[in-house]
Amino acid sequence: MTRCAPGRHLDDAVAVVGGMVATGLVDVTDDPDALDGHGWWLVVAPFEGPPLLARFAEQRLLRPGELSSRRWRGPRRDGWTSSLDETGFRRAVTSVRAGIGRGDVYQVNLTRRLSAPLAADASMLALGGALAAGNPAPHAAIVELPTHGVRLASASPELFLARDGDRVWSSPIKGTAEHVDGFLAKDSAENVMIVDLVRNDLGRVCRPGSISVPLLLGREEHPGLVHLVSTVEGRLRAGVGWAALLDATFPPGSVTGAPKLAALEHIARLEPVPRNVYCGSVGWVDADHDRGSLNVAIRTFFVDDGRLCLGTGGGITWDSTPDGEWEETELKARRLLDVVSAPVPARA
C-alpha cells in the first residue's frame, strides 16, 4: 500500500464518480480486501491485471456546471487509428462464428481500440466536462491520477455492480440499435444469454433462492442510440465482502461473453492489444457503510503512452454478420468521437 499525507490536497489526484468529487489522496493499493476496511475508495479495475484502489479523505457533491469552465482540446477527427481495421475485424467476427459453430462458445464480445495523439497538457477533467455536455451518461466517471498511471474520462451507460448492505445488483447492457424499433432477434438473444451468466456469477456469492431478475429486456435511450438492459439482483451470503464479490463477477459478463472463460480465450487470441481499463470497471466504495457502485467501463476514454484511447465493440453470436458488427462498432464510437475531436480544417 502506498500512503500519502492524510488530508493533503494533491493537484494531480482527483476523482469524480457517483456525482461526487474526491480529493485528498490518502492510500493506494491493489488489495480488494481494503474495500472491506474503512473509508471512501475510488475503484479502477482494468480488464486485465490488478485493480487500483485509492482512498480519498474528502468528498463533496459535484456542483452543476462545474466542469464546463474547463476547455478541452482534443485530437483531430481524422487523427484516430484502429487496432483492427475493417478487414481484420470482419475476419475476427468470422472466427468467432466458427467457434460458435464448433460449440466452443455461445457469444464473444469482440472489441477494437481507437487511439489518437494527445496534447501533453490535456486535462481529463476538461474531457469529462465535454462528455457531460455532449454525451451525458448515468455512470460517468473522471480520474486524474497521473503519478499512478491512471487518467480517464468515462461516459458509461452501464452498471456493473451496485451494493447496499447485503443487497447487490447488476444491469447488463446487450443489444444496440439506432432507434427503439431497430432491435434484431440477435439483440434479445445476446441479452438473455448474459442475464443467465450474471445470475450464475452472483449465485456464487449470494444466498440460495435470493437471485431474481426484476427487469428483462428493458429499453434505455442514450445519446445517438438505444440499448436493451436487464437487471439481476441478489442477497449476499453472510461474511461475503467486496473481494469475494469481485472475484465471482469480474470481468463483467456483458463485455466477455458466454461461457466466460471460453470467451476470454477468444478475446485474448483475436484482439491485438490489451483492453486496459476499457471493459473493466470504474466506481466508488464506501467501506464504512457497505455501499458502492461500479460501472462497466465502456464509452470510456483513457490515456496510454501519450495517446487518447477509446474502445468499441459488441457481442458476436451465431446470427451476427461481419458487416453488421462492424457498423455497430462505428455507431457506438461515432458520437463520442464527434464530441471529443477537433474538426478537420477546411481546405482553402
| CATH class categorisation | Alpha Beta
Number of strands: 19
Given the helix and strand composition, which structural class is it? Answer: alpha+beta
Report the order of strands and helices: EEEEEEHEHEEEEEHEEHEHEEEEH
Terminal-residue CA separation: 56 Å
Quickly count the domains.
1
Overview of the structural elements:
This protein has 348 residues and is an alpha+beta fold. It has one domain (2-64, 79-336): 4-Layer Sandwich (Anthranilate synthase). The protein is 24% helix and 36% strand. It is built from 6 helices and 19 strands. It has helices at 86-102, 124-134, 185-203, 242-249, 260-270, 322-340, and strands at residues 2-3, 14-17, 20-29, 40-45, 52-61, 81-82, 107-117, 139-145, 150-156, 159-164, 167-171, 173-177, 212-222, 225-235, 257-258, 281-286, 291-295, 300-304, 307-316. Strand 4 (40-45) and strand 5 (52-61) form a beta hairpin. Helix 1 crosses helix 6. The model is unreliable at 5-11 (pLDDT under 50).
